[in-house]
Amino acid sequence: MLEQFGGHSFFCMLNPLMAFGCLFIIALLTAVYCYNNFCQIFVNGKIRYVKPMENLRFQSKVTDSKNHIRASTWKLNSTLFGDIKTVRDLTEYVVKKHSSNPCFGRRPNFESAPTWNTYEKMGNTVKAIGSAISQWFDSSHEEQQFIGLYGRNSAEWFSTELACGSYGLVAVPLYDTLGQEALVHILKQTGLRIVLCDTVAQTRKLLTLTQDQLTHIIIVNKDDSEWESLKESTKGSVELVTFDQLVTIGQKNPLPVKNPKMDDTFLVCYTSGSTGLPKGVIHTHRTFVHAVSLAQSAIETLNYDQTIHRHVSYLPLSHIMEQMVISVMLVSGYQVAFLTTDISRLLTDLSYYRPTIFVAVPRILSRMYTDTIRGTGGGAWTTWLFNLAIQKKLNEQKRGIFRQGGLLDYFFFRKIREQLGCCVSLIVCGSAPLQAEVLEFIKAAFSCVVMEGYGSTECGGLVTATLPLDPNAGHAGAIVAGVTVKLVDVPSMNLIVERDGMGETGSLKIVDRSKHIFKLSQGEYIAPEKVEQVYATSPLVTNIYVDGNSTGSYIVAVVVPDLKEVCRRFATHLVSLCSPAPSSAQSADEKNTVTLSQVKAIHLCPEPFSIANGMLTPTMKVSRPAVRRHFSEAIAKLYEQK
């Protein structure tokens, strides 16, 4: 045979590039076949199956056409709440049902292992807290007493709230970003006499605001160097006790739990509005337990077979969202871990605790997306492969297959999964809608169900949630079971219910808060948060705030650049950086944003927005009134210079 070809192999006569191409195609087809059939065997992969919903086109129904009221088509699946009427019932249920399970955990430092309290110990602590605090009140008074909760997320914080529910007390969360005037307003309006504080520093702050009103302050983490001086300065005016001392008092003098009525007040959550002082939202035992049952029902639709779930609590407990999340975790007997220090070391704690349920806000998920895109290098070949991997994962998920540990997972998404510990099986995102490309990336990268939700403090946290296998992005999902939604016209923005309806599927789409939307001089309405989400996907942007007014013909922005990315581009793309004009609207152009929604002037700010400087809310959304006030002069100059 070789002699027929002059003593040479047939393959040697072919173009070497063609031979390589043939071998590459054969290898690629073999890899795809193995991936689809055997990957779970040879790379220890995991596959979860989620049953597709029966019909994604009818996610809500009209119950009152005249008043534009719609309700859910979901069934309230949860059967746990037949006998649970109050928070006291809820606490007793979880303690009895899951007594030996690990409940709350925290590491004293990053070098130590966490200490876990069981559900039984948590229940005993709740009774001790309630017994001790109840002794400080006159039992002859029929009025409910308010207890302040001031500090970072902790087992002590949440146990004290549960104690309020079991002993007829009212929990009032406090948080720093409200400002001093707002804190004074809350203290006076609720008549707070007893406050749980996380640190000595927070105690000093409260005492500077009001000392005559407070009678007892409970301190969770006392600093020995400041503790004695604090006690000396408050002697005779306010009684200071540590949390451990409080528990000891309650254990030595136990009191029976009370039987609150369903319509008794359990919680007052203060929300910061755009103007004026914060408003207190009242939650009764009935509304709180009902909200927990709705959230539990939404989670149960997934039918995951994982027996132990873990959640890392980092979103502020002063907001209703995190309270709902922890309550659902407790009902199911899951583990809740708290941060070792603060949110600056969030990824360290996440990689250590390896949560199975990750509750996030768009800012965090968008940051993961931009960091990963930056890591690909931006080359055409790597970008094409990366997008191909995402589409492959999404196509599987449309069929209800959530494969983890395959070849694509190992080569493309392993590093980002390691940031969260490689165990995430459900991601819940609230606070604001996600950009479509960010949502698709997160679904593919973690190969799990991603549920977006919309809620409000007034509704107990949850109003709508996306269905598990809904492939569409850009909406807030279906109305959850047990909730009704009334749509109203906003004529000033040309939004008419009769004409616009609820969309093809009956899901709810959030444009923006009506108070945030502004009109340009051309008469065009701009939803600033939607524009910010587009620009926030750029690796160059750490924070962005978009503003405009009816006298201007364009929108402007305050931008905090990403220093690392700017330095990297200076080193590799100096020529393009010296010609900023073509790239200033690149992100918006790529997302097909209309011209009027593209930022025309930018003020650069070196200091990142944070909760500490008041530019972010506790749920990490841009605090628009605060940013507008702080940068008012800079924004005015942007219009003068244009």
TrEMBL record:
<keyword id="KW-0276">Fatty acid metabolism</keyword>
<dbReference type="InterPro" id="IPR020845">
    <property type="entry name" value="AMP-binding_CS"/>
</dbReference>
<protein>
    <recommendedName>
        <fullName>long-chain-fatty-acid--CoA ligase</fullName>
        <ecNumber>6.2.1.3</ecNumber>
    </recommendedName>
</protein>
<dbReference type="InterPro" id="IPR000873">
    <property type="entry name" value="AMP-dep_synth/lig_dom"/>
</dbReference>
<feature type="transmembrane region" description="Helical">
    <location>
        <begin position="12"/>
        <end position="33"/>
    </location>
</feature>
<keyword id="KW-0472">Membrane</keyword>
<dbReference type="Pfam" id="PF00501">
    <property type="entry name" value="AMP-binding"/>
</dbReference>
<keyword id="KW-1133">Transmembrane helix</keyword>
<dbReference type="GO" id="GO:0005783">
    <property type="term" value="C:endoplasmic reticulum"/>
</dbReference>
<dbReference type="InterPro" id="IPR042099">
    <property type="entry name" value="ANL_N_sf"/>
</dbReference>
<dbReference type="GO" id="GO:0004467">
    <property type="term" value="F:long-chain fatty acid-CoA ligase activity"/>
</dbReference>
<dbReference type="GO" id="GO:0016020">
    <property type="term" value="C:membrane"/>
</dbReference>
<keyword id="KW-0443">Lipid metabolism</keyword>
<feature type="domain" description="AMP-dependent synthetase/ligase">
    <location>
        <begin position="107"/>
        <end position="504"/>
    </location>
</feature>
<keyword id="KW-0436">Ligase</keyword>
<keyword id="KW-0812">Transmembrane</keyword>
